[in-house]
Amino acid sequence: MLNALQLLRETNESFFLTGKAGTGKSTLVRYIRKHLHKKCVMLAPTGIAALNVGGQTIHRFFKVPIRPLPPDDRDLSDRKISQTFKYNKEQKDLLRELELIIIDEVSMVRADIIDVIDRILRAYRGVHNEPFGGVQILFVGDLYQLEPVTDADERDILRNYYPDMYFFSARVFNKQKPLTIELTKVYRQADARFVGVLGHFRTGAVTVEDLQMINSRVGQTLSEKDMVLRLSTTRALVDHHNTDRLNDLETEEVIFTGKIVGDFPERDLPTELHLKLKEQAQVMFLSNHPDQFWANGTLGIIEHIDEEGTVSVRLEDGQIHTVEEYIWENIRYTYSHEEHKVKTEVIGQFVQLPLKLAWAITIHKSQGLTFNHVSIDFGTRIFAAGQAYVALSRCRSLEGIHMQRAVQPHEIISRTAVDRFYSQANSDTRMSAALDRAKAEAGYIQAAIAWRKRQFADASNYLAEAMNICNLFDKPVYRRMLTNRIYSMAQTQQETIEKQAKRLTEQDKLMKELALEYVTMGNDCITGLNEPEAAIRNYNKALRLNPTQIEAMVGKGRAFMKMNDAHGAMSALNDAVALAPKNAEALIAIGEAALHFGYPENAEGYLLKALTLKKHRRKVLDLLIKTYEKLGDDELYDKFRKMRKKEDNPE
What we know:
Layout: H1 2-10, E1 15-19, H2 25-35, E2 40-44, H3 47-53, E3 56-57, H4 58-62, H5 81-84, H6 89-97, E4 100-103, H7 111-125, E5 136-140, H8 152-158, E6 179-183, H9 192-203, H10 208-215, E7 229-232, H11 235-248, E8 253-257, E9 259-262, E10 274-278, E11 282-285, E12 299-305, E13 311-315, E14 320-323, E15 326-336, E16 341-352, E17 355-357, E18 360-362, E19 374-377, H12 387-392, E20 401-403, H13 416-422, H14 428-452, H15 456-469, H16 476-482, H17 497-527, H18 532-545, H19 550-562, H20 566-579, H21 584-596, H22 600-612, H23 617-631, H24 634-648
Parallel strand pairs: 1-5, 1-6, 2-3, 2-4, 4-5, 7-18, 7-19, 19-20
Antiparallel strand pairs: 8-10, 9-16, 11-12, 11-17, 12-13, 13-14, 15-16
Helix pairs in contact: 1-14, 14-15, 17-18, 17-19, 18-19, 19-20, 19-21, 20-21, 21-22, 21-23, 22-23, 23-24
């Protein structure tokens, strides 16, 4: 637990937080959201899961289509991604400012969805060389529980790109799987032997003795006084059982009609819009009481419904409580520039009693809940990996389980890919390396700040300390990853004034290389995303690193042209021409800008000068033809048209 908090506080490393049922994953996530001061959003694969954690669904937040999205899908190409995901300015601002995304129940998220998230964040944040565009992702879940839900058609498409559907098989993890922290202490069950058997069912390493222990609960009778919950494999079985049990009661049926306000899809309702209840009906609470009288998943019996519709429920401990309507909120995330933080906006509400009939629920929906007495109905077969483990681990004790039939050895489904992935969990080496990288990056930033203040000795010391911890310049990929965070760097430690002078030369070279990276990012923003404002930000970063970067000045001028900002464009391009009067790209750009803003007389001189440099000759001739056309000089217009034709048809 401390390792997870340390990674979140001190690094930007994405990682997977996992653990057996009952190890406190949800509790830790709640603590993180409350105490970690990062710009964060909480996402989940389903509407109900998102509602339970107070977040949004992945599909709704990212506007991801509900279909397989293989890596070569044309809609995800650099040229088309901005047309596929038509985010407004508010949504783009949020994506750019995010520091942390928490994805709950990641065991149900397909690999292709993870790759789509990666491509969206890289594209819209303008950080193409870092996984997830530099955003830290906390993946939460247990891969030994519920697996990604896919139908045959989806599997047929995606198996050509992925070895399996698990999130860790996404291509963003091809070079290195995400660091994994596994919580190991189980709080739900106290019986060490039962905990051990559950662990074997979790991994598929079930022994004959394990099966004998679990199957000893077949036919065991639970007391009628106990609130027994049946766990079934399908929703149809659950609905049928709940309806039959409700009909068996001779008490009067009362219908409680909920209320939907604003945007709240009916498919995401946590309970029935028209909730049918009777006195003596067994129900489950769907909220947490502020005074902790009950929690989400607590069972009870309807004790009384009065004439005004007031409902009283008796809990397993015998206490009786009046239940009032609860308000569930459907939210969306926004970013406040004024407060510099991610905020939630309520876009819809559902008002209803926080109850549902609960003689039975599906094994799927029981995930994350804890009960004292369960009757497990696996039907004719266990058809999903993790299903047996989820069902068995819902109960606090072996004595609280009633099995409707025995589990057969052939029904234990093992998952080699998951076993292999979990084998690297809780790696001290990777944990230390991640923390070292974070400390080193902090040192590089301090060195950069000192360098900008011309405190060269301090910069050299900071850099030496950082490189002693972790030399990120050994591999080009780390240089590219650091580009988005720091403005200047040096390479080697210095002991004498002569070595320091050599180091400063190397630092200057490195800054020019990093400046060129920002130019590339700016160009990508123009050509791939048509985002001139984002491009200008990258070009400005390049110019801070290297004030003589002509490509950045030219790019900045062209970006201002796209925004129809004449002053901005001409100012940037005049700087470029003043600095490099014989640079063909700069002369062509300023000539083109002068034409664009209606000053052909100014364009003429720049373009004629560019023509003498014999670079991009056809483009220059085309621009000169336009210039003399606008100036009304027929003689020169004809002259340059003939020259242009000659370029296309040389003798």
